[in-house]
């Protein structure tokens, strides 16, 4: 999702321009939350990032489009996109004056089961038009957009999930593992995780690849980066060494390497780009 919205989710920074709606008890094992954000129309380009929670990002109208620029290609996505896995140096540019986006944020594992996807589906294409697999799973995008209020859209999605009786939740040990990684904000090693949760590495690797599509090390790296990113963009005086070390990096060079991998820019160049 656009990282500026993920920032608000991570910090719980909500107001009338961006807020969360909790899912009903019937689907709260699958959906982490529904989010509505108003766009600043002066900013037409956003960095995309995924913290391990797959999302569907619906534009305001069914005819609205965005241009997705990756490391190797440029593509156009209409109406809604799905993203998961590790998104590296991908930007989205809004082609229409969409002034609001509606985001459905899923728990890792549940998303793939719901849409009958292999967890590796997004490894090479972490930003994908939803229509690539929606129709095969009886999700009608056109019917979704016939509903105009947020309440109606949420009801439509929740009913779809409840009607998908084949969906089952991921195991408790994996949830416990994910909770531990989130609580430590990525400042942990795979060894720390296996020791804390009481599982062996082979089980951990198989479970992550089957349910999340990432290696445990990759998932930890996403959490470490997003927390370092939040500290960076929230700092008045930028001290890269302090930010790096406080977020579990060995030194500023390791943080710089990760930052350029995910954003395509150095931290200072990104801050300048973001302020323009």
3D structure, described in words:
This protein has helices at residues 3-11, 110-114, 131-134, 141-145, 150-163, 172-183, 190-197, 201-211, 216-233, 240-246, 252-263, 267-275, and strands at 18-21, 31-38, 45-47, 55-58, 65-69, 74-78, 80-83, 91-94, 100-106, 127-129. The protein is α+β, with helices and mostly antiparallel strands. The protein is built from twelve helices and ten strands. The two termini are 21 Å apart.
TL;DR of this structure?
This protein is α+β, with helices and mostly antiparallel strands. It has helices at 3-11, 110-114, 131-134, 141-145, 150-163, 172-183, 190-197, 201-211, 216-233, 240-246, 252-263, 267-275; strands at residues 18-21, 31-38, 45-47, 55-58, 65-69, 74-78, 80-83, 91-94, 100-106, 127-129. The chain has two domains: 3-163, Jelly Rolls, CATH 2.60.120.10; 172-275, Arc Repressor Mutant, subunit A (Orthogonal Bundle), CATH 1.10.10.60.
Fold topology:
Elements: H1 3-11, E1 18-21, E2 31-38, E3 45-47, E4 55-58, E5 65-69, E6 74-78, E7 80-83, E8 91-94, E9 100-106, H2 110-114, E10 127-129, H3 131-134, H4 141-145, H5 150-163, H6 172-183, H7 190-197, H8 201-211, H9 216-233, H10 240-246, H11 252-263, H12 267-275
Antiparallel strand pairs: 1-2, 2-9, 3-8, 4-7, 4-9, 5-6, 5-8, 7-10
Helix pairs in contact: 6-7, 10-11
């Amino acid at each position: 999702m656009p990282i500026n919205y993920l920032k608000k989710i991570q910090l719980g920074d909500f107001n009338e321009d961006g807020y969360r709606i909790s899912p009903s008890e019937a689907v709260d094992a699958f959906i982490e939350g529904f989010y509505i954000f108003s766009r600043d129309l002066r900013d037409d380009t956003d960095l995309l990032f995924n913290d391990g929670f797959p999302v569907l990002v619906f534009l305001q109208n069914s005819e609205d489009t965005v241009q997705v620029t990756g490391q190797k290609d440029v593509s156009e996505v209409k109406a809604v996109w799905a993203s998961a896995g590790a998104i590296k140096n991908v930007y989205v540019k809004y082609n229409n004056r969409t002034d609001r986006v509606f985001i459905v944020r899923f728990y890792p594992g549940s998303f793939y089961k719901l849409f009958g996807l292999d967890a590796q589906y997004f490894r090479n294409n972490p930003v994908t038009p939803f229509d690539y697999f929606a129709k095969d799973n009886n999700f009608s995008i056109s019917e979704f957009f016939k509903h105009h209020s947020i309440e109606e859209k949420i009801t439509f999605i929740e009913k779809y999930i409840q009607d998908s009786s084949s969906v089952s939740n991921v195991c408790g040990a994996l949830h416990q593992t994910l909770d531990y990684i989130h609580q430590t904000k990525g400042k942990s090693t795979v060894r720390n995780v296996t020791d804390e949760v009481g599982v062996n590495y082979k089980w951990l690797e198989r479970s992550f690849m089957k349910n999340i599509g990432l290696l445990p090390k990759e998932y930890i790296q996403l959490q470490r980066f997003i927390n370092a990113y939040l500290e960076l963009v929230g700092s008045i005086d930028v001290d890269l060494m302090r930010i790096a070390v406080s977020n579990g990096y060995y030194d500023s060079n390791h943080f710089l390497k990760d930052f350029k991998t995910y954003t395509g820019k150095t931290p200072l160049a990104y801050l300048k780009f973001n302020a323009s």
